[in-house]
Design brief:
Low-confidence stretches: none
CATH topology of the largest domain: Rossmann fold
Radius of gyration: 16 Å
Number of domains: 2
Structural class: alpha/beta
Shape: globular
CATH architecture of the largest domain: 3-Layer(aba) Sandwich
Number of helices: 6
CATH superfamily of the largest domain: HAD superfamily/HAD-like
Order of helices and strands: EHHHHEHEEHEE
CATH class of the largest domain: Alpha Beta
Distance between the termini: 7 Å
Mean pLDDT: 95
Strand order of the largest sheet: 3-2-1-4-5-6
Largest sheet: 6 strands, parallel
Number of strands: 6
Bound molecules: magnesium ion
Helix content: 25-40%
Strand content: 15-25%
């Protein structure tokens, strides 16, 4: 079975749109790194997760991937605080108890926490895909709608099932 790592923010839940809305409400400039970092460290992730929509039926799509028995499925997510890690794990344990969650501190690339070699990463951030491919991993870009980027793109997570024959 292939190792399959699925990103959380912007792939499973639309936390990116939600946090950008919040930043705007608070009058924080997205380019103001220091204040943005502070916002993420202090954010109420319980509330944020409760109020954020799933993207393109992501939870059911992951259930389909698990049912295909083709992959060892992990969620691989960057975190800014312990509170964020706790709330993401609680949410995922409830929705997808069969999936292992790997939390990576924001300061460290995902490729330094898990071994990308021959493993698949589905992520919405091109930078992560690029880094993953450099380390001989297979990168797939998750998009809400097709964008025609430099990477293979999917809009629904279960599309990965038919991309690999084993
Ligand atoms: Mg993401």
């Amino acid at each position: 079975m292939k190792q399959l790592y699925i990103d959380f923010d912007g792939v499973i839940l639309d936390t990116m749109s939600k946090t950008y809305e919040e930043l705007e409400k608070l009058g924080i400039d997205k380019k103001d790194q220091k204040r943005v970092m502070q916002y993420f460290r202090d954010a109420d992730w319980k509330k944020l997760i409760e109020e954020t929509k799933e993207i393109n039926d992501s939870i059911n799509e992951i259930k389909k991937i698990c049912a295909s028995k083709k992959f060892n499925v992990y969620v691989l997510t960057h975190i800014n605080s312990t509170a964020e890690m706790v709330e993401k794990i609680k949410y995922l344990h409830k929705k997808l108890p069969q999936v292992t969650v790997v939390s990576v501190p924001k300061e460290i690339p995902k490729t330094e926490v898990v071994n990308p070699s021959a493993a698949i990463l589905i992520d919405d951030f091109s930078g992560n895909i690029k880094e993953w491919q450099k380390k001989l991993g297979i990168g797939i870009k998750f998009v809400k709608e097709l964008e025609g980027s430099d990477y293979p793109e999917i809009t629904h997570l279960s599309e990965v099932i038919d991309m690999f024959n084993q």
